Amino acid sequence: MTAIEEHALTLDPEEARRVRQERLERIGRWLLPLAIMILAIWLWDRICVWNDIPKYILPRPGVVLQTLFDDAGLLFSSLLVTLKITFLSLLLAVIGGVGLAVLFAQSKWVEMSFFPFAIVLQVTPIVAIFPLINIYVDNQTTKLLLCAWIVAFFPILSNTTLGLNSVDRNLRDMFKLNGATRWQQLRYLRLPAAMPYFLGGLKIAGGLSLIGAVVAEFVAGAQGQSSGLASRIIEAGYRLNAPRLFAALILISFTGILIFLVLSLISHLILRRWHESALKQER
Amino acid sequence: MQEKVAQAPASASGKGPMLLALRGVGKIFSNGVTALSDVDLTIREGDFLSLLGPSGCGKSTALRLIAGLATPTSGLLDWRGSSSFDRSNIGFVFQEPTLLPWADVFDNVWLPLRLKGVSRAKAAPVVMEMLARVHLTGFENAVPRELSGGMKMRVSIARAMVTKPRVLLMDEPFAALDEITRFKLNNDLLELWQDERFTVVFVTHSVFESVFLSNRVVVMAARPGRVFREIAIDAPYPRNEAFRTSPDYAALCRQASDVLIGAINSTAGPHHDGH
């Protein structure tokens, strides 16, 4: 079908215009943000030069990049600490979120009883909860993990719960007619049906777990107990080491973007054959 | 498709032994709507029985009662003296194809067997044979969204038939298809039915479809949903394109159509506010 369309030799002006438009859009999607980014960095550099801003207030981009290389050992080992917390908490969020969602799906009563608690946990700012965690939990890693988990698990829980409950009624009847057990219905019908919802929640949770990890480190780092990127930022702030502060900040941003892209890719790979969200528009 | 000239015609008026009788069956929903009222209906083994009627006449409800997806408020279902029937003897085809969108054609057809614990390897010959019967050989690895509406419905029929049920319940299965596809699926369904000799209860709102397919058409009326009249379609099987354009077919359609109009008017009652 598409082969025929591609080999069509004569396109009317309207179709030709559309093909051109599509090609432009495809290039523009990458080129435009890149161009704006380069422009912004250039402008940043110029502002520093034009106004003679000292580097402990606003370092030039080149200096930040140089710091990133010079302090690579320190910064990347800190990044590793933060990443460890991020991914562990994301993993726990997946286990906890999906586990609870499956539990909720077993009975409307369970869901009605416990869902409000999840909401309470979600809407209370983690910075406000942390002092409590600090009192009750001794182990540093556990503290951070718990914090990041509380921030990250909710979107997975709420999305997966929604997905498990959004199964087509006829499909449910079909399983019933075929004498499916509760477990079979979960395994072959509800879990696959919830997959797109879960993956949507996972994408949000990925970013949140990084935020959770950094925020937790900030609060913990204020007490000088952490070695993650956040504590590097606090440290650099105290010492007016703006270049390192910027370098750490850039590192966190890139990590966040990378997490989002990887999770988007995973989502696309899993859904590409069947789900509307992953299908290329045909017209 | 090849004509099966040599095949003996199936009994036209369904003289088989009784399979199921609905005795005084009524269904009232919790919102107070009387979906069915005092329905008496006997289904015989090997019947191709159509439930024909306007929307709201309870034909889908009747089908769900037979399938065991709902229970009657009054009356009883008599499966040859027993009030229940082994569900594995029932195949159900919904109005929409109702396929698992993430699973390919093979897995969709395998599902009923899989739920009964049949392994992929063991199910494979049965599934492939069923796919061949609905003319879908070569599509076993396609996912539903890659198929046309008619092909999806074929998968749905294959899935319903893969357990070799004795009763096939169909709830307006072809209503959403274009006419050319519907005719083709009608022909293929009849062919399958003649080969396997299962019993079909077919819900439709199309006079032409019901007459073409069935040996018995039960016309239903609405508000409350009830059996209005039964028409025997005494045309021999196999029925094919020639039958579709024959004067016999036209006459039977006219007869069924008249009864249906009677059923619709009976609903309107003295107020004449029908359709």
UniProtKB/TrEMBL annotation, chain A:
<keyword id="KW-1133">Transmembrane helix</keyword>
<dbReference type="InterPro" id="IPR000515">
    <property type="entry name" value="MetI-like"/>
</dbReference>
<protein>
    <submittedName>
        <fullName>ABC transporter ATP-binding protein</fullName>
    </submittedName>
</protein>
<feature type="transmembrane region" description="Helical">
    <location>
        <begin position="85"/>
        <end position="105"/>
    </location>
</feature>
<dbReference type="GO" id="GO:0005524">
    <property type="term" value="F:ATP binding"/>
</dbReference>
<feature type="transmembrane region" description="Helical">
    <location>
        <begin position="117"/>
        <end position="137"/>
    </location>
</feature>
<keyword id="KW-0813">Transport</keyword>
<dbReference type="GO" id="GO:0005886">
    <property type="term" value="C:plasma membrane"/>
</dbReference>
<keyword id="KW-0812">Transmembrane</keyword>
<feature type="transmembrane region" description="Helical">
    <location>
        <begin position="188"/>
        <end position="216"/>
    </location>
</feature>
<dbReference type="GO" id="GO:0055085">
    <property type="term" value="P:transmembrane transport"/>
</dbReference>
<feature type="transmembrane region" description="Helical">
    <location>
        <begin position="143"/>
        <end position="167"/>
    </location>
</feature>
<comment type="similarity">
    <text>Belongs to the binding-protein-dependent transport system permease family.</text>
</comment>
<feature type="transmembrane region" description="Helical">
    <location>
        <begin position="27"/>
        <end position="44"/>
    </location>
</feature>
<dbReference type="InterPro" id="IPR035906">
    <property type="entry name" value="MetI-like_sf"/>
</dbReference>
<keyword id="KW-1003">Cell membrane</keyword>
<keyword id="KW-0067">ATP-binding</keyword>
<dbReference type="Pfam" id="PF00528">
    <property type="entry name" value="BPD_transp_1"/>
</dbReference>
<keyword id="KW-0547">Nucleotide-binding</keyword>
<keyword id="KW-0472">Membrane</keyword>
<feature type="domain" description="ABC transmembrane type-1">
    <location>
        <begin position="79"/>
        <end position="267"/>
    </location>
</feature>
<feature type="transmembrane region" description="Helical">
    <location>
        <begin position="245"/>
        <end position="271"/>
    </location>
</feature>
